[in-house]
Amino acid sequence: MLSLDSSRKTLGLCVSGCRSLSSLAELPEMHQMMRQTCRDYADRELGPIAGKLDKEHLFPAQQVRELGAMGVMAVEVPEALGGAGMDYLAYSLAVEEISRGCGSTGCVVSVNNSLYIGPILKFGTQKQKEQWITPFTTGEKVGCFALSEPGNGSDAGAASTLARQEGEEWVLNGTKAWITNSWDASATVIFATTDKSLKHKGISAFLVPMPHPGLSLGKKEDKLGIRATSTANLILEDCRIPLGNMLGSRGSGFKIAMQTLDSGRIGIASQALGIAQAALDCAADYAHKRTAFGAPIGKLQAVQFKLADMAVAVESARLLTWKAAMLKDAKKPFTKEAAMAKLAASEAATFCGHQSIQVLGGMGYVTDMPAERHYRDARITEIYEGTSEIQRLVIAGQLLKEYAS
Amino acid sequence: YIVTIRVKPDHSGVVTDGVKHSMNPFCEIAVEEAVKLKEKKFIKEVVAVSCGPTQVTETIRTALAMGCDRGIHVEVSGKDYEAMGPLQIAKIFAALAKKEEASLVILGKQAIDDDCNQTGQMTAALLDWPQGTFASEVTIDGEKVKVVREIDGGLETIKISMPAVLTADLRLNTPRYATLPNIMKAKKKKIANMKPADLGVDMVSRVEVLRVDEPPTRLAGVKVETVDDLVAKLKANGTI
């Protein structure tokens, strides 16, 4: 039975505290300007090279430096620490626009901001912030996030990487898998079990510089998409770090990981939106130009229905993403909305990628057009930072809590 | 800058309603040069000016985000805006340059919508100031400015005294992207608002646009076998 309390919970979030619904339709001027500058950068600097970066698996080091100079590599970081000092909505817009130019570069931006800087900003000491965040705001250095292992992805609570204390040092042993940015990173936030008996409450977070004795990298994975990013295993063999490199308190690692992924979801949703929009742009443009049966194919209902479905998928996912970002900025709970955004945006990206190729027909299947790259780039968004299946569990869990009497 | 231009049904001009406007690319280069001169400490303050309806404040804010210190929005709208041309704008700029006691007025060499290439030159003439137009290089040397100009014959270097008017050409510099921190700072910078009448400028245009048409559709070409055929065809269609 729906009590008054739970209905207030479900409705109240829209009204108090966070920006009114009208601003979802028109962003504040500063956000519009910020979106425009990122879009200009993506159109002029990323669009022309995205195909090459993908084909040759090239990390966009120069572009990352330029984005760092613009403040895009540390959007939410306060200016005192070297960041842009903007809010999460601004960050979401930045990632979407960058991803629209190049899905891989958008991924690098998202991982550095949400997964590496995010937890240090939230759980680090002032000294840790200065040491581990400030050098990573300029684009000269990027970080990575090491949670998954060969034995556990979705099952994050079963971390088998171990950390034992030896005098003034932590000694880490184990293997982490699927680590984005690994070959290009200068530091990692890594999770290891400090107390096996406490199960997931016995996991702690650590900061490890890269390269570092005892930490080696596995081979670069040959991926379907986002090929300009490096993905590899992190292998720890008696990797020694000072005690001061623990992030947060002992045993809080799982909590740190889950909260980081909550925010990271908004970043990935934004990346997926950028890829989806690029796919839609490609298809819509082609529909104007390609003629068949004596007219541009955009006149055919079959094509029109596809474009309409793509546009609805992108726009609805975008509004969900903006809402999640706004809730986070208003310091309200946003777990459910972030999961909804990530789920909707990643499914929109794979849908748009698929339909974009369909609209382009044969041209969609060859590398002359970017449609096939969007299709490949989109696929990962349904997997990393929480699979679509996990997102559904998170959403259902939150939803059922709201309805519990 | 890829926009589909449509002529209005009454042939009085082109459709501008609902078309996305942005800073003229040559003006971006001018703003960048001004900000660079300030960074090199040759000038103290950069004021970004735009004439037009309310929407131009967005463009002024972009200039502020690139590093200008403050902005001036000269409000011109409706019929006045439609009739506004280089002469009216030059009068406004000349009045402002005197009011602000500017040492330099830097503009883009031309706007890419009308390609007039007149505003800078007219402004200099109204002020009786020297002008360095089509600048591809600007160096300040004491009270003088050395300007390398791109002209049809190549490059011309001139030295002019300040105060002066400069117009920016393509190769002068590469405009910066507005950084996120600068966009934040731009929010606090001031944009003053005024009307042409406040500057004593009359907006009456001496030019009347009679008609605007799209260029004629390009006709298919005709291949000819010999030079004699070519001459005969050109004579037949009245070209020679």
UniProtKB/TrEMBL annotation, chain A:
GO CC annotations, alphabetized: mitochondrion
Pfam family, one: Acyl-CoA_dh_M
Record's keyword annotation contains Flavoprotein: yes
Keywords tagged on the record: FAD, Flavoprotein, Oxidoreductase, Transit peptide
Residues of the Acyl-CoA oxidase/dehydrogenase middle domain: 144-239
Taxonomy, superkingdom: Eukaryota
GO terms (BP aspect): butyrate catabolic process; fatty acid beta-oxidation using acyl-CoA dehydrogenase
Cofactor (UniProt): FAD
InterPro entries xrefs: Acyl-CoA_DH_CS, Acyl-CoA_Oxase/DH_mid-dom, Acyl-CoA_Oxase/DH_mid-dom_sf, AcylCo_DH-like_C, AcylCo_DH/oxidase_C, AcylCoA_DH/ox_N, AcylCoA_DH/ox_N_sf, AcylCoA_DH/oxidase_NM_dom_sf
EC supergroup of this enzyme: oxidoreductase
GO molecular function: flavin adenine dinucleotide binding; short-chain fatty acyl-CoA dehydrogenase activity
Keyword Flavoprotein assigned: yes
All copies of domain Acyl-CoA dehydrogenase/oxidase C-terminal, residue ranges: 251-399
Residues annotated as domain Acyl-CoA dehydrogenase/oxidase N-terminal: 29-140
EC number from the UniProt entry: 1.3.8.1
Family: Belongs to the acyl-CoA dehydrogenase family.
Name listed for the protein in its UniProt record: short-chain acyl-CoA dehydrogenase
Lineage: Eukaryota, Metazoa, Chordata, Craniata, Vertebrata
Primary gene name: LOC110523407
Automatic annotation (TrEMBL), chain B:
This protein's UniProt keywords: Electron transport, Mitochondrion, Transport
Location of the Electron transfer flavoprotein alpha/beta-subunit N-terminal domain: 11-203
One Gene Ontology CC term in the entry: mitochondrial matrix
Pfam family, one: ETF
UniProt keyword annotation of Acetylation present: no
One Gene Ontology biological process: amino acid catabolic process
GO molecular function, one term: electron transfer activity
Subcellular localization(s) per the UniProt record: Mitochondrion matrix
Alphabetized CDD domains for the sequence: ETF_beta (cd01714)
The protein's role, per its UniProt record: The electron transfer flavoprotein serves as a specific electron acceptor for several dehydrogenases, including five acyl-CoA dehydrogenases, glutaryl-CoA and sarcosine dehydrogenase. It transfers the electrons to the main mitochondrial respiratory chain via ETF-ubiquinone oxidoreductase (ETF dehydrogenase). Heterodimeric electron transfer flavoprotein that accepts electrons from several mitochondrial dehydrogenases, including acyl-CoA dehydrogenases, glutaryl-CoA and sarcosine dehydrogenase. It transfers the electrons to the main mitochondrial respiratory chain via ETF-ubiquinone oxidoreductase. Required for normal mitochondrial fatty acid oxidation and normal amino acid metabolism. ETFB binds an AMP molecule that probably has a purely structural role.
Subunit structure: Heterodimer of an alpha and a beta subunit.
Family: Belongs to the ETF beta-subunit/FixA family.
Name of the protein: Electron transfer flavoprotein subunit beta
Source organism: Oncorhynchus mykiss (Rainbow trout)
